[in-house]
Design a protein that fits this description.
Length: 298
């Protein structure tokens, strides 16, 4: 079964063009599935039926896995078994009669404009790392970039005179995103004062990424996450704020100020507008919250 999994992951990478992180997620799910099958002494895909799959899913529930995790696992298994069936490695698909439970819709968390501004203004801009972090936060909020897109930005992707940047999103899809004046200002300050100093600390390699860590190397996802947590605390905000929270806030604030849904879809790099539509629910929820707080007879 190892060979089938490797072939499927290769298919996701080459034929589907999925991102590295997405493929890792599929690989993690399939390895967990494979381990379960091995414990059941099942060594052939043809020996798997829907009762074995249901047994596996039940084991996930017993482990305390969330409904969202189980739904994701079902999706992974459905696509994997469809692949091996289409490739004629097996003569049946055990997922045919497996139902996918309905996912409970939860709205993404977003911040108020005041909270976003407090976080963005938290770094100490009297030093090179503070200037860098201010630029990073400005770009995150001004563009709604995913963390992977942010840390992968190259110098050639910046077109500051035009107020634009280029990014490669999920599925290797390129898109152009506008930059606000504040983001442009802080990027220029960072490039002039901070990045030049950080580059000198890395004597082993030439790094073309825009944002560098204190060693002059490419930033990691964990580094962005860690720094943001620090500034959230400094800003006095008692919420669980992640890099994705700033992305959600970017989209929500655009819609609340009258932006067209299709425009927001393009800016976020969503392939399907149904993914973007969840932000309309956030805006409606915001209206409800304000109404209930301020209307005297609510």
């Amino acid at each position: 079964m190892d060979n089938y999994i490797e072939e499927y992951l290769h298919y996701l990478k080459i034929d589907r063009g999925l991102s590295h992180n997405t493929i890792i997620s599929y690989e993690r799910d399939l390895k967990q599935y494979k381990m379960f099958l091995e414990n059941k002494e099942i060594n052939s895909l043809n020996d798997i039926d829907r009762f074995i799959v249901m047994d596996f899913l039940e084991s996930l529930k017993e482990q305390g896995k969330s409904s969202a995790s189980i739904i994701r696992m079902i999706s992974t298994l459905r696509k994997y078994h469809l692949f091996v069936r289409q490739e004629r490695y097996v003569d049946h698909d055990p997922m045919t009669y497996i139902d996918t439970p309905k996912k409970q819709q939860s709205l993404p968390k977003s911040l108020s404009l005041e909270e976003v501004e407090k976080i963005i203004e938290a770094p100490d801009v009297t030093n090179e790392l503070g200037i860098r972090d201010r630029a990073i936060l400005e770009v995150m909020y001004a563009t709604g970039l995913r963390v992977t897109e942010l840390i992968s930005l190259k110098l050639d992707d910046l077109h500051l005179s035009l107020g634009l940047l280029k990014t490669i999103g999920k599925g290797d899809k390129e898109r152009i995103v506008p930059l606000g004046d504040q983001a442009i200002y802080w990027i220029n300050r960072y490039l002039e004062y901070s990045r030049a100093a950080l580059v000198t600390k890395n004597k082993k390699e030439t790094v073309n990424e825009v944002f560098l860590n204190y060693q002059g190397k490419k930033f990691t996802r964990q580094g962005i996450w860690k720094n943001l947590k620090i500034y959230v605390v400094q800003a006095g905000i008692d919420k669980d704020v992640t890099p994705h929270t700033l992305r959600h806030s970017f989209a929500t604030h655009l819609l609340e100020n009258g932006a067209d849904l299709r425009v927001v879809q393009e800016l976020l790099g969503h392939a399907d507008i149904s993914t973007t539509q969840i932000y309309t629910h956030i805006s409606k929820q915001r209206l409800t919250d304000v109404y209930q707080e301020y209307f005297p007879r609510s």
